[in-house]
Structures are given as structure tokens and as C-alpha cells.
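Anyone up for a design puzzle?
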């Protein structure tokens, strides 16, 4: 039944029609469209009263619990699977329900009513991750990390000093350059193609920011060689540049970045630096440098960065989206433009400040979360 008209009003209006009243006159009297009243007379909404359920309330609650459990353990089920599970329950109990639709499962109407009765059941597009990540971010491992953080906070007095707590991580640009923004086209056009404006040359960008939102100039790593143009003059202010055979971070480059970090970070000591357990980050040279410069390092547990790494969770997505949008806009101006190593840094400069990283980082507040756990 449409939510705008109560069942009692509909019943009174139908009774008036049965007693000889004109359909249009009765509809106007009770404030109900005559087409709605006509549909009720024809039995279009006869299935709407809620007692006609395929599953009992406790059975529906069990199905909801199963949906939530599967989603929490990395195996979320689809709507079609949920409908199959519901029909299997009906068949096992020998029920003949008007909501059953042949042998294929329950009808879409039943599913719509089920969702209305259980508004906590949501539909999302899943983010596919490795099985190790699903089972890596356990409560025990996260608690262990927070206990380590609490000990460091108490020992070094990091509580209330988010400007001394930093987080670093790298991300790759290249291979793909897709934008989430919708484009305009003819309504009847089934497929819309957009010209690729980024090359497959891999470029790594290493970012770092404090829990107070203070950003260290990024470290840009190119594959095999540096661009031949004045890339450093066109890139983000005070950015650092490096080269590796693959375009990824290695131990020598990370030591070079640590020197860059010390130059632009707060001068108070000690500092607290959160990072992942990449092999380039945990060499003996890194340990010696951090000890000499009073930098306390906390490595995030393996396979947990998708929930514990602030840069992964909240920063790199918007940064890459801004980069792709800027590249596509430049492609509209110059149809033959391709964003590669030569013009990567000026686009990164605009994207880096189009949605300030400081605003995102300060909203995440990773240092405060570890304090207040």
C-alpha cells in the first residue's frame, strides 16, 4: 500500500463505493486518487498486508544475521542468493505462500518488503581484497597495535601532540586512469568511450602527513630515468625526486626520503612515524637512521593497511581521482595530449592541492584514535 494513504482510509473509501458511491466522488471525498482506489478494487494491492510473509519474524531475523555474518567474514552474499536461501526455508517447512514465484525463488515484491522491514540491510558494491587482508585485521592484532601505541604515548608524552605523529606510505600512478565522474551523451547511446590520457609508465608518489594535518612535500619516484624537462620546477613545492629500475620504492630511496622527512618535519624530538612493513622500510640502515634522529617507528601489522593506514583509507583515493579528472580536462583541451613522465609533476601539483591533503588527514586523526582506544 502506498505509504501516503493509510489502510483505514482505503477501507472506508472502498466501503463507500460498495454502498453505491461514485468512484471519483468517493476518491475526492477521502483525498485518494481515483486510479489508486480503482487499483484497490481490482485487487492490485491485495498482497500488501504484512501478515502474508513467506518467513516468520524470527526466521527473517536469522536470515539477516546470516547476511551480516557473511559480509563481516569477507563472503558477502547477493540479493539472488538471499532469495534462494529464503525459498529453501519455505520449501523445507512445506509452506505454500503467495509470494513464491514458481520454483525460482521469492518475488521481487517480497524482497522489497523484506528490505523495508529490515532497513539495516544495505546493498553495496564490494571492494575485492586478498583473503589475507580479510583475516589479517582481527580484533586481537588491532588491540596489540593499540597497546604498543599506548606505551609509546605514555613513555614519550605523545598525548595531545598530534603534530609529532606522522604517517607515510606510497602509491602508484599509471597503468590505469579512470574517473568516477559520469559523462553526458545521447540517451539512446549504449556505450560511451573516453580516450585514455595517461600512459602505462609507472610513477610512485610517497606521501607523509602528521595527525595535525601538516604535510611533508611528496617524494616522486620515476621508472628508469628522470624526465628530460624541468620537472622539478613544475611539480609540488619542495618535492623530492628519485629513480629506480621499476619505479617503486627501495631501501636506498627510503633512506633518501628519511633525510627529506627530517628536513621538513617538526624539530621537536622524539617523533612518531607510522608505516607499513614493506621490505624497503625495515632495513638496518633505516633503523640506525631513525635511532640517530630520535624517530620512533611503528610498523602496521601485515595485511591490515586497508583499515589501519590513514593514507590508504582516506587520502590516496581522492588524490588519484583529482589527478585523473585534471588529466581528462587537459585531454579535452588538447586531444593529442598524453600524461606521461614528462608532464606528470605539474598535473600532480594541481591535484595535490585541489582537495588539500591536510583537510583529509586532520579528519582521519590517526594519532588521536590510537590514544583514545
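Challenge accepted. My sequence:
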Amino acid at each position: 500500500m502506498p505509504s501516503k494513504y493509510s489502510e483505514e482510509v482505503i477501507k472506508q473509501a472502498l466501503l463507500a463505493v460498495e454502498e453505491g458511491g461514485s468512484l471519483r466522488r468517493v476518491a475526492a471525498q477521502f483525498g485518494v486518487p481515483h486510479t489508486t482506489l480503482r487499483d484497490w478494487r481490482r485487487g492490485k494491492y491485495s498482497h500488501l498486508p504484512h501478515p502474508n510473509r513467506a518467513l516468520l519474524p524470527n526466521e527473517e531475523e536469522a536470515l539477516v544475521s546470516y547476511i551480516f555474518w557473511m559480509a563481516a567474514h569477507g563472503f558477502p552474499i547477493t540479493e539472488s542468493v538471499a532469495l534462494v536461501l529464503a525459498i529453501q526455508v519455505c520449501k523445507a517447512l512445506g509452506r505454500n505462500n503467495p509470494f513464491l514465484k514458481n520454483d525460482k525463488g521469492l518475488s521481487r515484491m517480497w524482497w522489497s518488503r523484506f528490505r523495508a522491514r529490515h532497513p539495516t540491510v544495505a546493498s553495496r558494491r564490494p571492494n575485492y581484497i586478498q583473503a589475507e587482508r580479510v583475516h589479517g585485521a582481527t580484533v586481537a592484532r588491532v588491540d596489540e597495535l593499540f597497546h604498543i601505541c599506548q606505551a609509546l604515548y605514555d613513555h614519550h608524552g605523545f598525548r595531545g601532540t598530534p603534530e609529532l605523529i606522522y604517517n607515510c606510505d606510497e602509491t602508484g600512478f599509471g597503468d590505469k586512469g579512470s574517473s568516477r565522474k559520469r559523462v553526458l551523451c545521447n540517451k539512446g547511446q549504449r556505450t560511451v568511450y573516453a580516450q585514455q590520457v595517461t600512459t602505462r609508465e609507472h610513477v610512485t608518489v610517497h606521501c607523509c602527513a602528521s595527525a595535525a594535518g601538516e604535510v611533508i612535500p611528496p617524494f616522486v619516484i620515476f621508472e628508469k630515468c628522470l624526465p628530460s624537462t624541468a620537472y622539478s620546477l613544475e611539480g609540488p613545492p619542495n618535492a623530492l625526486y628519485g629513480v629506480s629500475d621499476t619505479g617503486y620504492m627501495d631501501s636506498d630511496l627510503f633512506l633518501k626520503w628519511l633525510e627529506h622527512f627530517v628536513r621538513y618535519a617538526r624539530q621537536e624530538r622524539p617523533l612518531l612515524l607510522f608505516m607499513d612493513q614493506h621490505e624497503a622500510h625495515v632495513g638496518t640502515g633505516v633503523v640506525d637512521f631513525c635511532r640517530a634522529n630520535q624517530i620512533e617507528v611503528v610498523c602496521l601489522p601485515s595485511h591490515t593497511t586497508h583499515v589501519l593506514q590513514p593514507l590508504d583509507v582516506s587520502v590516496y583515493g581522492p588524490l588519484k581521482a583529482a589527478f585523473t579528472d585534471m588529466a581528462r580536462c587537459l585531454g579535452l583541451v588538447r586531444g593529442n595530449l598524453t600524461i606521461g613522465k614528462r608532464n606528470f609533476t605539474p598535473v600532480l601539483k594541481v591535484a595535490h592541492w585541489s582537495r588539500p591533503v591536510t583537510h583529509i588527514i586532520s579528519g582521519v586523526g590517526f594519532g588521536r584514535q590510537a590514544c583514545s582506544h
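A detail worth pointing out: Residues 310-333 form the longest helix (24 residues).
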